[in-house]
Write a structure and sequence with these properties.
Arc Repressor Mutant, subunit A
């Protein structure tokens, strides 16, 4: 018989709280893998992207990733393709000049959103033979060729315009990323110091542009470059090369 305050006899059985089934992870797919890879690159840079790191990001065995990307090279190509798929280039019903301006600004915005991916977008596709490039990296070419050919440009001329157009975009994007600094005040101080070190008689024009060299408006610079390029393209449409 138990008395008040006495310990219960027999084993004590603890009742655990049923936490329910563990949350299900989404099944692996190429899109899931590339989205995770892009997250790693955005956060830590291209060098941080490895199969082991990606496996940790997805909480999966890295070996399970090889069904979707055979090696790191394929993974990098996939990231470039994944980002370029976000560049929407609608065709039809829009003036080609407006379309090129809109695409240029969208591409710039995409690069500023994913600055660590820019080296892939600028160097990787051009360095890869056309027949080996991921399909997604070729869509901007196909879509912009359609815009230009529909506007009346000959196919060969449209291809040349595309090349000049993206050469301009790549240059402006790289220049803007280079101009981005952590401390603008420090940048201006360093600029003034550098300009004062230049011999005044040999660098007359650079020294007079101190205010302009100390500031950079990427959108305005791109718009200026597009004005020049589109004027030349317009002249090509009216006076086709022989």
């Amino acid at each position: 018989m138990r008395t008040s305050g006495s310990e219960p006899s027999g084993p004590i059985v603890s009742v655990g709280v049923d936490a329910g089934p563990a949350p299900r992870r989404p099944p692996l797919s190429r899109e899931v893998i590339l989205a995770a890879a892009l997250a790693v690159v955005d956060r830590d840079g291209l060098d941080a992207l490895t199969m082991r790191r990606l496996g940790n990001e997805l909480e999966r065995d890295p070996m399970s990733l090889y069904r979707h990307a055979i090696d790191r090279t394929a993974l990098l190509d996939g990231v470039a393709e994944f980002v370029l798929n976000q560049l929407v280039i609608p065709t039809g019903g829009t003036d080609w000049r407006t379309q090129l301006r809109r695409t240029a600004n969208d591409f710039r915005g995409l690069c500023l959103q994913h600055p660590n991916v820019v080296p892939l977008l600028v160097t990787r596709p051009p360095a890869t033979p056309l027949g080996l490039r991921p399909i997604g990296t070729l869509r901007p070419l196909e879509q912009l060729l359609a815009v230009l050919i529909d506007a009346g440009f000959a196919p060969v001329t449209a291809l040349r315009i595309y090349r000049a157009y993206f050469a301009l975009l790549y240059g402006y994007v790289l220049n803007q990323l280079q101009e981005t600094v952590t401390d603008p005040e420090e940048s201006r101080d360093l600029l003034r110091l550098g300009l004062r070190r230049l011999p005044a008689t040999d660098f007359v024009h650079i020294r007079t542009l101190e205010a302009e060299l100390g500031t950079y408006d990427g959108a305005a610079e791109l718009a200026f470059g597009l004005d020049i390029l589109l004027t030349g393209i317009d002249d090509t449409l009216n006076n086709p090369p022989s």
